[in-house]
Amino acid sequence: MAQAKVGDTVKVFYIGRFEDGTIVDHSPGSEPFQFKIGDGAMVQGFEEALVGMGPGDVKTIDIPATKAYGERMDGMTMELSRSRVKSLAPELGDILEVTLPSGRKANMIVVEVTESKAVLDANHPLAGRNIIFDIEMVAVVSG
């Protein structure tokens, strides 16, 4: 029975949740999710947990924010006057593509809207959160 290692393509079923049980991610559909360990398709802690697992192995892991979507960074917010985003009519939770002063584009989440301003946040929505994953290794396809 092959054990997974970095560089292997694997098939897994998984469910990711917060400590309160809220599901935040899961393997799509009824077929297992297939990807190559080390390609960054999943968060670092998830990929690390697969190393050494073989077909049929099941485990539950608690991934700290630093190995999931990172810590929240306070400097990742931007306040804009409503006149700059008026034509968009932003609502709480909207994702807007913003061109930064560097010319780079970033997706930002609307986290506050008032009569005079909109506050946007470039942190990943799951940043700063630990995530618990239930994982079932279905197959190690190739290496």
Question: How are the SSEs ordered, and which strands pair?
Answer:
Blueprint: E1 9-17, E2 23-26, E3 33-36, H1 44-50, E4 58-63, E5 77-81, H2 82-85, E6 95-99, E7 105-113, E8 117-121, E9 131-142
Antiparallel strand pairs: 1-2, 1-3, 1-9, 4-9, 5-8, 6-7, 7-8
The CATH architecture name of the largest domain reads Roll
Total beta strands: 9
Bulk shape? elongated
Task: Tell me the Rg in angstroms.
Answer: 19 Å
Describe the biggest sheet? 5 strands, antiparallel
Number of domains: 2
Terminus-to-terminus distance: 13 Å
Spell the H/E element sequence. Answer: EEEHEEHEEEE
The top level CATH class name of the largest domain: Alpha Beta
Please name the CATH topology of the largest domain.
Chitinase A, domain 3
Number of helices: 2
Arithmetic mean of pLDDT: 90
Residue ranges: pLDDT <50 for 5 or more in a row?
none
What can you see in these coordinates?
By secondary structure, the chain is mainly beta. The chain folds into two domains: 9-70 and 126-142, Chitinase A, domain 3, CATH 3.10.50.40; 74-121, Thrombin, subunit H (Beta Barrel). Helix content is 8%, strand content 41%. The strands form two sheets. Strands 1, 2, 3, 4 and 9 form a five-stranded antiparallel beta sheet that branches. It has a four-stranded antiparallel beta sheet with strand order 5-8-7-6. The mean pLDDT is 90.
